[in-house]
Amino acid sequence: MHFYTISDCQNNNIKGIIRNSALATPVANANIILSNNESDQFITGTISNKNGAFRISKPNNNCVTLTVSRLGYVSKKVLINSNTYSNPFYIELTPDTITIEEVTVVWKPLIDYNEEGDVALNVDQMGNVEKLFLSDIITNIPGLSIDIDGNVLYGGYHVFTTLINGERMGSYYRGKPGFILAGIEAKNIKRIEVITEPNGRFGFYTPVINIIPKGDLQDIYYASADVGTEDKYALNLDFTKKFKKLTFRPSITYENTQYTTKEEEERSDIEATTTQAINNLKTNKQIAPSMEVDYAFNRDQRLSLDMDYTSTNFSNNRNLTYLDGINICDLLSNKSSAYNLSAAYYKRLNIGFGQYGIINAKASVTENKDNETQDQWILDKQDKYQTESSNKNYDASLFFNYNYHKKGLFVSANANVSYSYYTRKYNREIFDITDNLWHEQYLYENNTTTRIFTASLSPYASYLIRTPKKTSHYFKLTLASYLRNEDNENTQQVLESSSIIYYTQNFKYRYSMKKEKELMFLINNRITPPTYKQLHQPLTYVNDYTMQQGNNGLEQAYNIEGVLSFCKNTNYIAISKGVSSKGKDKEKIAYDFKIRFNYRNKEIVQDVIINEDNSIIYTWKNAKESFTSAFDSKVDWNVNKYIRLSGGLSYNYRVFNTITRSENKDWQGNVRLSGTLPVDIKFDIQSTYHSQEQNYNTTTCEYYDMQARLSRFFLRNKLRISLSAQNLLSHNGIKTEYKDDESNIITQKYPESPIVWLKANYLLFSYYKKR
C-alpha cells in the first residue's frame, strides 16, 4: 500500500498520469477504481487514455482509496486525503516479471468506448459489489440517474429504454414498475452498455441501456396491492417459473374503481336560458387471468402459447337536474368479456457478423362480447334499452426480417403476409311498455363478415456519421409497398388496392460543444398516399361526391416536423468519436431548450356522411393545411446530492385553415421538487399551470393542478411502499365556454376530489443461472 496526500480542492477532481516505472513511458488503458477506504465499497471508476492520463471525480468524504491495475503490471493502491498536492501527480506501475510457460487471458477494461461513441461498464471486472444493486452501479456512471419511478435518465431529461440482453425489460417483468433496477443485485450483472444513439440497434433510435447478466433470469415473483380513496383497490399476482426449456407465466389482476364527477352547464340562446347539473357515479370491476407458455429450443428459437381472458362490469349512474326542477336519471350497465388465444413461432438466423434475420409466424383467435342495458327515467316515464354486440377475429401472419449493422450503417427489410377473417354483430333494442316486448331500434342493426388479405414489403436504411469534432448526424429512409384485398359478405363489396409509399425521411444533426453543451437539429418528412389509411384502418370507402367506392376524391398527404434543441447537462456521456465520458460534481445547473414545428397539408382524416335515407357511412377526406409551433424549456438544479429542483415552460401556437382560418395559443408551466429524505424516503412534488386555451369557438379557462408522491424500499429493495395524491388543485373545477352567433354554453367540470393511493409492490428474482 502506497500513501499519498493528494486532492484538487478547486474542482474536487483527481488528475494523474500512469507511467511505467522502468521506462517512464505512459501506461494506457489502466483501470482506476475509487473506493471507500473504510468499507472498501466501490464509488466510481475510469481508465487511462493513450497518454496515461486520467481524471476522476472525488466524493466529499476525505478517506478514499485509488486502485490502479493493468495487465502485465503489479497493481498499486493509493490512499487519498484532503491535503493539497501538485497537479497532476504520477503513479508508477512496476512491470510484472513473473515468467510463465503458457497462459490464456480473457480481460476487459473497466470502461469500454467503441468507435461509435457508446460506453460500457464491465461490472464483472469490479470488486466489492456484493452489497450493491444495479441501480447503484447505474447512478455511478457519469450522466445517468434514476427517477422516482425507476426510469433511467440521461442528463435528467432523456428517458432510456432499458433492455436485458437486447430485449425490452417488459418481456421479462411484463410491464411492471421500473423499480426492478433497484431489485437486481450487481453481483449477477456482467456488463452494462449505454448507447445514446443506437441507430437501429435492437430496433431503437432513442437512447437505450442494455443490461447483460451473467446468466439467464430464472424465476420471478411479483405481487402488488393498491388501495385508494372512494372505494378503489387493485391486486396483481404475476409469476415466471422455468423448468429447463419450458417457461410458465401465469398472472391475475383484479381491479375495483369508483369515480364521482360533477358538471354544471348553462345554455343560452335567443329564446331562453337553461341550467343543468350532472352528477356521475362510475364503477368499474375487472378480473383478468392470463397464462403464457414458452418452449425454448435454444436462444434463437422458441414456441409460445398465450391465453388471456378479461371480464368487466361497468356501471354509470347519471343524474341530470334542470333549473325548472325536471330530473333525469340514467342508469347504464355494461357486462363485457373478452378472450384471446394465440400461438407463435420465433426463429433468429445469425447470418454473419452484424447480420441476422428473423422469422415470426403467429395465429390467433379473439372474441369480444358486450351486453349493455340502459334505464332512463324522465319524470314518471321510464325507457329501457338494451344493446348486444360481438366481434370475433381469426388472424394468421408470417413475418420475415433482415438486419445488417456495421459501424454507422443500418439496413433492414421487412416482409409480411397476413390473412384475417372477422365477424361483427350489433343489435340495439327498445322496450315497448304497451305490448311488453323488445323491438329492434331502426338503423342500429349491423352484421358483417369480412375477409382481408394483406402483403407488404418495407426496405429501410439509415446511416450515422460521427466525427472527431464532436458531431453526429444520420439520415434514414423508408420505402413501403402494400397489397390488400378485402371482401365484405354483408355489403357484397370487394376492395383491391396496392401502393408504393415513399413513407418517411429523417435527418438529424448533433453537435457536442465544450462545457457539456449540445446542439441538435432534427427534421422528419412523411408522405402518405390515400391507400395507406385504407390498408391499415379499414372502413367503408366511398367518394365524398359520387358516393362510389374507391379513393378518387383523396389526395396525397404531407407531414413535416422539425426540432431545434440546445441543452447543457450537469453530467453527460460524450457521444463523439474518441471522446471519453466525464462529469463534474461542481456543475449544478442543467437546461434544455427546444423549438418545435409541424406542418400538415391534406392530412387524411375520418369523415361521416349521412345519405338521403339517413344511413351513416364512414369514409375518409383530406383536411386542409395546419401549422403548429412550440417552445419548450426545462431547467434542472441539483441543489445538493439529496434535493433536485426543476421547472419547465411550454408555449404552443397553432393555425388551422378549415372553413375559416383559426389561430389559438396556450402555455403551460410546471415546478417539480424531488429528492431523498432521511431514512431513504424518496419524494416528488409537482405543480402545473395551464393557461387559457381557445380552439375555434371553445375556450378553456386557466387552471392549476398538483400531485405528490412518497416511496421507500424495504427488504433489500424487494418491497416498495408508496403514497401518492393527485387532483390536489384541479378538483376546484375546469371551466369551458362555447360561443357562436346563436348560442352560448358555459360548462364547469369538477374532477374527482383529491385521490390518495397507498401502493405496495413486491418483486423477487430467484437467481441467475450461470452460463
Automatic annotation (TrEMBL):
SUPFAM superfamilies: Carboxypeptidase regulatory domain-like, Porins. Residues 507-762 form the Outer membrane protein beta-barrel domain. It comes from the Bacteria. It holds the Pfam family OMP_b-brl_3. This is Outer membrane protein beta-barrel domain-containing protein.
